[in-house]
């Protein structure tokens, strides 16, 4: 795909413009044409939302609902187990081939490419709930939920945050062409279930997936309990953990983000972790990182001591 063309002449005349040009040039190596189409991206985003209204015209069958659920949870796992716990935090290892599978399925969730997603998520942890945080509720709940997507500041892939995976050309290609897997998925839904399969399996499933994912940026920083005294506002929430296959144990995660397991205790349901263990059992992934006992218990023990003292 064509990349952005940056003029060096303007930079010679204006130092500030030159810095912006160099930044655009650097980011363009990981971007495709889609990133430069701000208005088109927003039109597509809201059109998919509006298309949910087609459910009143196509009706619904058991097959439609099965397709909706299957694609919701498969793509949710691609975000939680792939984009988040693998690409952003490297909490386990896998082969280059399966790495590509995770990235392609993650692209099908229509949350842009793996380098963009993981790179920006690393920035979130670096500046959690600080002014530089791209989706902190301190800027407003709407902003944290989805408003940040339309700011334009975060459209480019922060390559300096994701150099470890940017060395794979196939991942760079997916990052540039992240629209390809969704188009393939839409075609498969149409082939499997006809127009109603497209509406329920692709359109409705995608919108539900988007907003379920967004709750971790918004609600998991405003609603729930705090076991660990982290420097951010992250919270644990049982209901959000069920909805997002384990991502709702967000305070745990911010306390020790290097762990593939976010539900630290047996009663904290973490379906993504269970699925990762299943993949490890068949040899697709390995070296799953667990939270050390002293990390899990450190603040929990301290809080228990405070309660006894009180």
Describe what this molecule looks like in 3D.
- This protein has a two-stranded antiparallel ribbon.
- The protein has helices spanning 9-13, 15-28, 38-51, 55-58, 62-88, 96-107, 114-126, 141-145, 163-166, 169-176, 180-218, 238-243, 250-255, 271-281, 293-309, and strands spanning 93-94, 285-286.
- The protein is 60% helix and 1% strand.
- Helix 5 packs across helix 6 (96-107), helix 5 (62-88) crosses helix 11 and helix 6 (96-107) runs parallel beside helix 10.
- The radius of gyration is 20 Å and the shape is globular.
- The protein has one domain.
- Mean pLDDT is 86; it is low at 1-27 and 304-310.
- The chain has 15 helices and two strands.
- With 310 residues, it is an all-alpha fold.
In a few lines, what is going on in this structure?
With 310 residues, the chain is an all-alpha fold. 60% of the residues lie in helices and 1% in strands.
